[in-house]
């Protein structure tokens, strides 16, 4: 019997899940996307090797390599430009797969193209807003609003995947008592601007002063003049509580760039980079509390709907992509009688919930980026220089602990994902 799978959400998690399900042999897959069109919106993200491995398994790496930059290294620095710690990344660190710096929107458009090519153009239904309706879910039918017409339609399913982000319509069906997004008193400013390339043109830099923090890296390079499209994100204490809960809120860099005046990291003038950016946006620093379960009957969560986390350590999209493969092949590994679907969903949850819970907790503690705050705290109060501020091996230990938490080790990232072993 054909298994009918409906995915709420046509973002990275939803589209990767559709591709992974198709690769595992599922053909009756429909993606319901609230937006009326899939457009290259957003800003830059980094996809870690253990997730690039899964994209490569799906035959996407060659296409993605043409619209991304393979990150070579990561540098932590003080606001004054002094290096705290640096390490190679991706293939430069010995991994079989690269770490990719890529525009979120470019990735989403490329994923959508592959879904349309492989599953059929009608498998992505845009302008379809999923409705939180426990009554229809009990009948294994999902209701959605056609935003173009205002009509409410329904689809029957055997599995309903909630991959519809941090404000998921399906998460309340799985966890009715969940309070929803958990805000902090931080705002993240984001933007991009063309500028002079720095270092090798493939390096990520994270710097801060204990109060404010910035990360920047190149997403593309121009052939004619060698300029780089620099993506940046900067966090600072929130100034206006009304900004909480607003997404993609347009922001004027003149209102926050002065707080980064004088920051020159690896030759990049941070305030100047912000002021050169034509489109800037504000985001609240929010995440979701970990759940005890991602599954309720045949409704299952994936991506941010399951485990939205602070933007630390490049693990938001990374863990979502791994969710997609884990879910697809957990279902495929339990294909058969009716009870097999429930066993597959249980196996997926067992495989992924505990790990992402640890990553969420680590990100709330700032993950490896805590070294920036530690340097600001210890210099000059406890040490005269950054070198004196850390004990021998302390910095390497912090980096290694986070890598182990996120499965970013050579042993894990270069071997088949365990949920896929034995699968075609």
Provide tags for this entry.
D-Amino Acid Oxidase, Chain A, domain 2, FAD/NAD(P)-binding domain, alpha+beta, 32% helix, 424 residues, eight-stranded mixed beta sheet, 2 domains, globular, six-stranded mixed beta sheet, disordered C terminus
Task: Offer a quick outline of the entry.
The chain has helices at 12-23, 49-57, 61-65, 104-119, 134-138, 171-174, 270-275, 304-307, 316-333, 339-364, 370-378, 386-389, 394-405, 410-413, and strands spanning 5-8, 29-33, 44-47, 68-70, 73-78, 83-88, 100-103, 124-126, 128-130, 141-146, 152-156, 159-162, 182-195, 203-208, 213-221, 228-237, 249-250, 264-265, 268-269, 280-287, 295-296, 299-301.
CATH superfamily (homologous) name of the largest domain: FAD/NAD(P)-binding domain
Provide the CATH top-level class of the largest domain. Alpha Beta
% residues in beta strands: 25-35%
Unreliable spans: 241-245, 419-424
* Spatial separation of the terminal alpha carbons: 20 Å
The CATH architecture assignment of the largest domain turns out to be: 3-Layer(bba) Sandwich
Rg: 22 Å
Q: Mind describing the biggest β-sheet? A: 8 strands, mixed
Q: Which descriptor suits the 3D outline?
A: globular
Q: Helix count?
A: 14
Question: Which structural class matches the secondary elements?
Answer: alpha+beta
Strand segment tally: 22
CATH-defined fold name of the largest domain: FAD/NAD(P)-binding domain
Placed side by side, the strands forming the largest sheet appear as 6-5-14-15-16-13-20-17
Q: Please estimate the helix content.
A: 25-40%
Tell me the count of domains. Answer: 2
Could you report the average pLDDT, rounded to the nearest whole number? Answer: 91
């Amino acid at each position: 019997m054909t298994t009918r799978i409906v995915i709420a959400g046509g973002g990275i998690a939803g589209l990767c899940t559709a591709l992974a399900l198709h690769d595992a042999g599922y053909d009756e897959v429909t993606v319901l996307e609230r937006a009326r069109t899939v457009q290259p919106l957003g800003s830059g993200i980094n996809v870690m090797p253990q997730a690039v491995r899964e994209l490569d398994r799906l035959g996407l790496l060659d296409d993605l390599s043409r619209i991304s930059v393979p990150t070579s290294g990561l540098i932590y620095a003080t606001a004054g430009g002094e290096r705290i710690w640096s390490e190679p990344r991706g293939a430069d660190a010995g991994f079989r797969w690269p770490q990719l710096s890529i525009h979120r929107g470019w990735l989403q458009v490329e994923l959508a193209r592959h879904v349309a090519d492989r599953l059929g153009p009608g498998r992505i239904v845009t302008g379809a807003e999923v409705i939180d309706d426990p009554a229809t879910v009990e009948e294994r039918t999902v209701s959605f609003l056609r935003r173009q017409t205002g009509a409410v339609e329904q689809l029957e399913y055997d599995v309903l995947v909630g991959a519809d982000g941090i404000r998921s319509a399906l998460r309340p069906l799985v966890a009715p008592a969940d309070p929803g997004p958990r805000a902090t008193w931080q705002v993240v400013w984001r933007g991009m601007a063309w500028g002079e390339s720095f270092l090798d043109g493939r390096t990520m830099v994270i710097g801060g002063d204990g109060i404010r923090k910035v990360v920047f890296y190149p997403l593309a390079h121009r052939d004619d003049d060698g300029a780089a499209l620099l993506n940046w994100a900067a966090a600072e204490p929130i100034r206006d509580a009304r900004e909480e809960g607003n997404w993609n809120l347009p922001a004027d860099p003149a209102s926050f760039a002065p707080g980064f005046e004088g920051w020159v990291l690896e030759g990049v003038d941070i305030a100047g980079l912000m002021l050169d950016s034509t489109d800037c946006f504000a985001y609240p620093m929010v995440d979701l509390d970990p759940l005890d379960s991602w599954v309720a009957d045949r409704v299952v969560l994936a991506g941010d709907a399951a485990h939205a986390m602070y933007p630390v350590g490049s693990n938001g999209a990374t863990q979502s992509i791994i969710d997609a493969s884990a879910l697809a092949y957990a279902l495929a590994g339990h294909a058969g009688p009716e009870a097999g679907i429930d066993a597959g969903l249980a196996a997926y949850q067992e495989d992924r919930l505990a790990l992402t819970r640890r990553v969420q907790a680590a990100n709330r503690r700032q993950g490896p980026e805590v070294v920036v705050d530690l340097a600001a705290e210890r210099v000059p109060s406890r040490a005269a220089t950054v070198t004196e501020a850390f004990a021998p091996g302390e910095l390497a230990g912090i980096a290694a602990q986070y890598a182990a938490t996120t499965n970013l080790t050579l042993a894990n990232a270069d071997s088949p994902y365990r949920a896929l072993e034995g699968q075609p």
